[in-house]
Design a protein that fits this description.
312 residues, alpha/beta, 5-stranded mixed sheet, globular
Length: 312
């Protein structure tokens, strides 16, 4: 009996590197996750990617794998097969596709390797199996350690020639804002990412949750739910920045749906209530008023499902 084809998927971000085998219906098998040594040299980060592949290749299902899909923090360069994640300094023009293709288990079967930015992978996933199903024109955002995004236009995911179309995290929403590691300033990511939310709250005097040393955006969200005014203000500022970026994108490409996912989106109404309020102000043109904003449905698996969708 022939094996059901599977795709090997790898999702690379500033916090975690995840892997799984994914079937043709988007179901995951053998999912695993390891921390990203984001501040270590490039070869150290690659070693974790290879460790993920080692574990997937050690499963009985590896024989059914027909391709490898990678969703990576960006920017990416599809033509060169390289990545330069802002939050992984050791990778600059790093030849990720070639390095994955050279992994013994991949090279032994000459499996094709497909690359996309994490935002594009998330858009592919949500359009295939999630909250963007059926949308002809959608913006899908990942709001987490950074802010990534991908575009669905005319019913298909559009990565653009370089693979970075829709890279919303690095458009300027504050003209005189702080310098960004990308080289610009006032970037959306510097205002709306989980890192930025926590940094702003701490700078404004937030003292964290009682009895814990947690100073992440998740802790800020918990404080906001409890009514802490500093935590609420930090999420409000992030929501305002997101609204400005979403409205600008909608004005440019005429969207009919926006999907928001990533770790910060798990804050729920702490984020989505001020986001709706600010969008009402920024999305003022008649053709973008009342944007259909939805929460992502695929959670932390979106990057893996999207990496597999690239191989379909």
């Amino acid at each position: 009996m022939p094996l059901t084809p599977l795709f090997a998927a790898v999702d690379i971000g500033g916090t975690k590197i995840a892997g799984a085998l994914v079937d043709g219906d988007g179901r995951l098998r053998h999912r695993l996750q390891l921390p990203t040594p984001a501040r270590e040299p490039g070869p150290t980060v690659l070693a974790v990617v290879h460790k993920v592949l080692d574990q997937l290749a050690g499963t009985a299902d590896w024989a059914a794998v027909t391709a490898v899909g990678i969703g990576s923090a960006g920017p990416v360069d599809l033509a060169g097969g390289t990545v330069s994640p802002v939050n992984i300094p050791g990778w600059r023009a790093f030849p990720l596709v070639a390095e994955v293709a050279a992994h013994p288990a991949v090279a032994a079967r000459t499996l094709p390797v497909r690359l996309a930015g994490d935002g594009v992978a998330m858009a592919a996933a949500e359009h295939w199996q999630g909250a963007a199903r059926g949308a002809a024109n959608a913006l899908c955002l990942v709001v987490s350690t950074g802010v990534g995004a991908g575009l669905v236009l005319d019913g298909a995911v559009r990565p653009g020639p370089s693979g970075n179309a829709g890279h919303l995290g690095h458009i300027s929403v504050d003209l005189d804002g702080e310098p960004c590691p990308c080289g610009s300033r006032g970037c959306l990511e510097g205002l709306a990412s989980g890192t930025a939310i926590a940094r702003r709250a701490l700078a404004d005097g937030w003292r964290g949750l009682p009895g814990t040393d947690d100073r992440t955006a998740r802790a800020v969200a918990a404080s906001a739910v409890a009514g802490d005014p500093i935590a609420l203000a930090s999420f409000d500022r992030a929501a305002q920045a997101l609204a400005a970026g979403i409205a600008a994108t909608a004005a440019l490409v005429d969207l009919d749906r926006v999907v928001v996912g990533g770790g910060v989106a798990t804050a729920g109404e702490v984020l989505f209530t001020p986001l709706a309020r600010h969008l009402d102000r920024y999305a003022a043109l008649s053709y973008i008023r009342g944007l259909d904003v939805r929460r992502a449905e695929l959670g932390t698996d979106a990057g893996l499902i999207g990496a597999a969708a690239l191989c379909r």
